[in-house]
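Researcher: Please generate the 3D structure of the following complex. Treat every line as part of one assembly.
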Amino acid sequence: MGRYVIRRLLQMIPVFFGATLLIFLMVNVMGDPVAGLCGDRKCDPAVAAQLKKDFGLDQPVWQQYLTYLGNLFTGDFGRAFNGQKVTELMGTAFPVTARLTLVAIVFEIVIGISLGVLTGLRRGRPVDTGVLLLTLIVISVPTFVTGLLLQLLLGVKWGWVKPAVSPDAAFDELLLPGLVLASVSLAYVTRLTRTSVAENARADYVRTAVAKGLPRRRVVSRHLLRNSLIPVVTFIGTDVGALMGGAIVTERIFNIHGVGYQLYQGIVRQSSQTVVGFVTILVLVYLVANLIVDLLYAVLDPRIRYA
Amino acid sequence: MPEPTPRKDDTAISTAGAGGAMDLALDEGASLEQPPGPGRSDRARSLWSDAWHDLRRNPVFLLSGLIIAFLVFISLWPSAIASGDPLACDLAKAQQGSQPGHPFGFNGQGCDVYTRTVYGARASVTVGVCATLGVALLGSVLGGLAGFFGGWFDALLSRITDVFFAIPVVLGGLVFLSVVPGTTVWPVIAFIVLLGWPQIARIARGSVITAKQNDYVQAARALGAGNSRMLLRHITPNAIAPVIVVATIALGTYIALEATLSYLGVGLRPPTVSWGIDISSASAYVRNAPHMLLWPAGALAVTVLAFIMLGDAVRDALDPKLR
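Model: Done. Output below.
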């Protein structure tokens, strides 16, 4: 187990550097990193040259990247366009998005898996067809359309929830945004669980469990579910990173000041330090989530042993 | 069988005796799941003609095919069903609802929503089709070569795909398109190809590795076939099915991605007519004039749904194991 973790950690290193380098190149080489510092007007060429010199942007790209990484490892993420430290922005943004992602994941687990088990055990019945159709529709309607429609219906027309989220972004305000963020993944989790449960329900070990007289509840929860959840756990784990990155759209609709909001501002105002810094953290989250998923395998499936 | 079978059948059957035997085995597997229909002939069918046989009888395939044919038609000749000009707007009519001659009403600029919804199909279909073609070509060539040759190229490609998977898609799109601006569809297509190929490359790699281990490929090698002949004649016809399935489903998601990026203001930009742009501008007036949002959003949803249903149907037909 220990050796496996070390090998996985080593594998994460090139991915981390590759992904940050890619974003770094896009922002700093293809884009213009000082353009955002002069406000809406174009920078005066002399000012731009001086700024580039001050920030070390006249040096070769590889040297800039190394300097940036060196600063990262000492906890210096640079400053946003308005002089605010990027780490400060992260301090306010990440807790909000983490809460939003948590709400979304809970929705995925509770609703997605329940619906999946329900339909998987009743394959071909009306409830199965209905849920399948519903998931197909949810997958097809892009998140921003679902979000706008739910905001219009639940928030504005019927007044069940507040249409926008306050800066505190408490859990109860994040229910609707969390559901919207989760919607597409929720549909995938339902379908994945359904397929997996339906497949395993025919397995010999389930027949054995039924034959030896276990109550149906125990067969489903202890034997069937534990084996069926392995692909679902993989999906949800890899989804954590995608949800945090994909929260841009949801946060824009519901005016949530989280990671997506800050990133959007960073991109619109061409604040390269904000963009690269946030993306770096998001890549790290994705990598760690994937590592945890791989380790969880061993817990869920005792047949898998890591040497 | 009166219907013309796709040309691929002939190549799949004529490749090698062993290849035909494998197809026969697949066919038998399929017939176990499904009782033989009335028009089923005794001839050994390849995976492809078997799939086509199933697809023609699948209502989901027919429905989605019909919708897609209609979409392609209106994106080629939008003026056939919408006589107006999508850029001709009259501010005096801004936000007005449905009226004779203008069934969907007017948007915030006073443009006709019906005309704009019809013309918006072109951007979505172009992005979806071009991006999918690019992704499928690049991904299957790189992934296929990596799977076939293995070695350092395979190792390098696997690491590169890992890197691309770690970047959130919408985020990558925002960054890429903010530094490569343009009002046309091409920057968006370039971005989707850039970020989408690793997905197909992984599928193609795995599929080629599976096909490579088949006896008929070993037999071809023993008979002295060169690399290019093995790849083109023996491996490609037997490894391409998963790529086609994933690419078809991806097409729908690429259309949704284009609309999302346009909604965020970095994808397509005016004066290009796009559902994403229209939904974005309508979202500000959604309280007073929801019709401006609902029509383009509905068109977008139906389009994505059609492509995803098509992908589902193709997958069911091509992969008998999944039934």
